[in-house]
Every structure is written in structure tokens, then in C-alpha cells.
Design a protein that fits this description.
With 141 residues, the chain is an all-alpha fold. 61% of the residues lie in helices and 0% in strands. The termini are far apart.
Length: 141
């Protein structure tokens, strides 16, 4: 599968060339927004590490919990196909099984920069409510 983020008119032209060169039939999906940024990704893991250390939790367990409790609702609210797939495959499972699946199921990887920003805001509120002190980057102050 090929993914392209289109930011400029040149990107549009490049995508058109790719489509014209593709063997037919092809399926094309268009989603609004950009992929998450590396800075957002770094901040997410920094906060998970800080929270895990301060709360005495395993960082991977905490990551899975955040993906399930915070990330799933963001994606379900905005992506009809994700919502349908989640509702059919995961919603019927108990909480423990859902957490286990979060170790292997991409959630934040599917998010746009705007969605990941909402996810980070939710993480911050959740951890702050638990008394966790998180590093705030200059650009988020």
C-alpha cells in the first residue's frame, strides 16, 4: 500500500503521475489532515516514561491504557471505517483483552497531527489529575 501526504501543488502533480502509472483497478482514499509529527511522537513517549516512573507503572502498560481510553475515542469519533471495525472486532471484548490487543494494534500511528494533539492534551489532563509532573516543551506553553 502506498501512502502520500499532499502538502503542495507539486505533491498533487506527483500523486497524479503515480496514479496514472498504476495498474488498474486501484482504490484511493483521501483523508483530511497531515500525519503526526516526530515532535509529537517524541513528546508522547517522554510523557509516558515520566508518568510511568512517577506512578510506578510499566511504561508499556500505561501506553496501552492511554491508547484504549484516550486514543480509541478520538479515532472512533472521526473515522467511520475505524469505528465500524472497532465496534465489530474489539468493542465486544472485555477490558483486559482490549488492553492486551493495544500492544499490537496501531492507534496513535493512525492519527493526524490534529488528532495526536488532542490525544496529547488528553494525556496531559489525565496524568495531571493523578499528580504527575510532565515536561512541557516551549512550543506548548
Amino acid at each position: 500500500m502506498t501512502r502520500r501526504v499532499v502538502r503542495t501543488p507539486l505533491d498533487v502533480d506527483t500523486l497524479a503521475v503515480l496514479l496514472k502509472a498504476s495498474a488498474l483497478p486501484v482504490t484511493v482514499s483521501i483523508a483530511k489532515g497531515d500525519r503526526r509529527s516526530l515532535d509529537q511522537n517524541d513528546l508522547q513517549f517522554k510523557w509516558l516514561s515520566e508518568a510511568a516512573m512517577q506512578l510506578g507503572h510499566d511504561v508499556e502498560d500505561l501506553r496501552c491504557e492511554c491508547k484504549l481510553i484516550l486514543g480509541i475515542p478520538i479515532l472512533r469519533a472521526e473515522d467511520e471505517s475505524f469505528r465500524a471495525m472497532y465496534d465489530e472486532c474489539l468493542k465486544p471484548l472485555d477490558y483486559v483483552r482490549k488492553l492486551r490487543l493495544m500492544r499490537h494494534w496501531p492507534i496513535t500511528r493512525l492519527m493526524t497531527t490534529r488528532q495526536l494533539s488532542a490525544y496529547l492534551d488528553a494525556m496531559y489532563r489525565r496524568f495531571a489529575d493523578q499528580g504527575v509532573a510532565l515536561t512541557i516543551p516551549e512550543d506548548r506553553k
